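Chain A, query sequence.
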Amino acid sequence: MTYKELEHTADVKIRVVAPSLEALFGEAACALMEVKYGAVDAGPVRYPITVDADDPVSLVHDFLSELLYISEVENLVVASADVSIRGGHLEGELYGERFDPAKHSGGTEVKGISYSGLSIHRDKENYILEVIFDV
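Chain A, predicted structure.
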């Protein structure tokens, strides 16, 4: 996984690095699930996802927020996300397994995704996302 936890006073701040915007969103989804549940393994469940927003920063915020919602309501622990992005439209599939308290209790409760400090930028080779998970 290509993310790193950064120092933050009260919440969990991460930096995700990936070669494409789609891979960046997929890696961010995995990072969120790992923070929330601890170790996450692939599973047999597939779940469709569609999100629309005005810009990439809003899109990643809304995507991760929707992922939190799906995780809670559908009891789905996501191991990977295969998404395509065209402008402000994201669609794809989430892959994972049903929540099992014996297996998925090693993380930290994530209450939401913060707009504070949320950024996406690109260097010569990669997209870079910094995001704070409200815990």
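Strands lie at 3-6, 12-18, 45-52, 76-86, 89-98, 112-122, 127-134. The chain has a mean pLDDT of 93.
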